[in-house]
Write a structure and sequence with these properties.
This protein has 151 residues and is of the alpha+beta class. Helix content is 44%, strand content 20%.
């Protein structure tokens, strides 16, 4: 059985990131498998769970994020020669908290705001289904964090 928890509020500065991080850590501390999903264009949950030095390394390495997942492909690099398909397993960072192997992160980066602004009005088919939840969240509040865990 899994439990999904979302922290949504239209007002900024009310503690959504702090609460999401603490809930994720609490679950992992109690041996629950937790996937923290950062859907905040400011990426504060990703930065908080990875720590500033690791987050900077992550960004510089151009690793995939929730943005890549929504776009449904990894952009071309000099080694790939073209865009590559991507799955959620390619994006999840495992074991982000040193005290537990139960806490994983689906990270975000600033480009999420661009993807939402461009993709939502013209989304069709599979892309529309992937971002439908984000579209509803965007209209209700500025940030969203999900903490998903299973017993």
């Amino acid at each position: 059985m899994s439990v999904n928890v979302s922290f949504i509020n239209m007002k900024g500065g009310v503690g959504k990131t702090s609460l999401a991080m603490q809930a994720a850590i609490y679950g992992a501390w109690n041996k629950k498998r937790v996937l923290a999903i950062d859907l905040d264009p400011q990426s504060n949950l990703s930065q908080a769970l990875l720590g500033p030095p690791e987050y900077v390394k992550f960004i510089k390495a151009a690793k995939p994020t929730v943005v890549t997942l929504l776009e449904d492909y990894q952009p071309a690099t000099s080694g790939t020669g073209g865009p590559q398909p991507i799955t959620i397993q390619d994006v999840i960072i495992k074991n982000v908290w040193s005290r537990s192997v139960c806490l994983h992160l689906l990270p975000c980066r600033l480009e999420l705001s661009r993807v939402l602004r461009i993709a939502l009005p013209s989304a069709t088919g599979a892309a529309s289904r992937r971002i439908a939840g984000l579209g509803r969240t965007k209209s209700r509040g500025s940030n969203r964090h999900c903490v998903s865990g299973s017993r």
